[in-house]
Amino acid sequence: MFRTVLVLPALAVLVAGCDADCADAARLNGTWALWHQVLNVGTGGTAQVDEDYPSYQMFINGWSKWKVKASASSGAFNVDITDVSEYQGDYNDDAPSTESFAGNLTVDEKNCNAFLLHMEGDFSTTSGTTHAFVYDADAIYMGDHMAGSFTYDDSYTGTDADGNSMSGGLTGASGELNATLQLDGFDTGFAED
Fold first, then answer.
1. How many other CB atoms are there within 10 angstroms of residue 15's CB atom?
2. What is the CA radius of gyration of the chain?
3. Whole-angstrom Cα distance, residue 7 to residue 148?
4. Fewest beta carbons within 10 Å, which of 85, 94, 101, 127?
5. 30-84 tens-digit pLDDT
6. Dihedral-angle region of residue 28 (phi above 0 means left; psi in -120 to 50 means alpha; beta otherwise)
7. Short-list 153, 80, 159, 101, CA closest to 126
8. pTM here?
């Protein structure tokens, strides 16, 4: 059921054993800088997909900031996502989009540092599109880093720059993710709260 994605060269060595506090999902809590890279855009949905979609206006492509709260007893996972990539590199913009989502966290029975995250909801960008998405990640926890893969489905509606209605989506997008816990002195290009 779980697949291990070797994103970092030394990943296999790092996850060979379980941490003493492995059962405590609170170790995932904190502010993380996530880098998502779409490697396969999948197939278009009900309308033709733009050539540059998935764009940097969604958290699955580029940098995003995740404030995580996980619960070991219930498998619940809550996250506030600030999509700093929405401005394509201008990480200090005054009004990036931040939205809150609930998800499910499932820990692998054989390796407690491996987990699956399932999350779905509606993400509204500041450019006027709303994305109904389903996101699944298969990741490895390595202390102040995480790495893995993700899949993503999306159906969006909105208006273009001329005020015309537009819609579209994709099915089966996938890629890699890397995350770093935000500690004093670490700078990804966006300000820490």
1. 18
2. 17
3. 6
4. 94
5. 889 889 988 888 876 544 445 555 666 678 888 888 899 887 666 788 888 887 6
6. alpha
7. 159
8. 0.77
